[in-house]
Amino acid sequence: MDAMKRLVLFPLTGFVLVLVAFVLLLASNLYTYHRLTDEAPIAELRFRQLAPFRYRASIAFGDFCSERSYVLYGDQWRLDAQFLKWRPWANLLGLDALYRIERLGGRYADTALENAQPHQAYPLRAQDGPDLPRLLARHAGWISPVDTLFGSSVYAPMDPGYLYRVYRGQSGLLVRRQPLLADGAAAAGLTIEISRACSRPDGWLARWFQ
After folding, report:
1. Nearest to 44 by CA among 210, 209, 163, 189
2. Most buried residue, 73, 111, 143, 183, by most Cβ within 10 Å?
3. Backbone phi, then psi, for 122, in 5-degree steps?
4. Residue 107: what are its φ and ψ, rounded to 5°?
């Protein structure tokens, strides 16, 4: 009788183990897909034209609680960021790509104007403290969770009629625009609520990578 039970339970146990392994594999695959396509807003930009090829740019980033203003030359804006990308198995463990906004500048759509007209760019990252991304990237290797350290940029026209929202993905930056109403408020469609409390200070790690 015991032998009969073992003969019945053995294939049943094997089937359950195979089924569990398949479910875990499928869940892992779906989880990987979600992690690698994750997006989050990291900056918002508005523009006011001061003169031909001269604009005042207002940018909010970090906790989105305050704006900074800069004068840019050209007819397009460009935002640069540095990314630290983890290996896929590190993404599965919950590590998202780290980024740090580096620079805001103007550019010209016409390359002849780009070579002849004035330029202006502004550093946006804090200069104090060690450059942690570069320190981590130095130890990249086959046993390291670090995949690569790279720069990513987006650019778009400096149109005062739009709010530009910059997002970070796992592999770089992207930008979407949203029409502004007559009073300067963003039109419905891409509104994102920032739930983070503005009075709460950043942690030491967040300050290096924002």
Report:
1. 163
2. 73
3. -130, 135
4. -150, 165
What is the identity of the amino acid at 138?
Answer: R
Contacts 24+ apart (CB under 8 A), 24-27: none
Tell me which H or E stretch contains 7.
helix 2-36
**Inter-residue contact 107 to 157 (CB < 8 Å):** no
Helix, strand, coil fractions of the chain, as percent rounded to 5: 30, 40, 35
Q: What's the distance, Cα to Cα, between the start and end of the chain in Å?
A: 67
By residue count, the chain amounts to 210
165 within 8 A of 175, measured Cβ to Cβ: yes
Q: Is the pTM of this model over 0.90?
A: no
Question: For 105, what's the count of Cα atoms within 13 Å in the CB-facing half-sphere?
Answer: 14
Tokens for 4, please give them: 């009969």
Kindly state the DSSP code that residue 178 receives in the 8-state scheme.
E
pLDDT, tens digit (0-9, with 9 covering 90-100), for 119-168? 999 999 876 666 665 666 666 666 777 788 889 999 999 999 999 999 98
Round to whole Å and give the CA distance between 176 and 180: 13
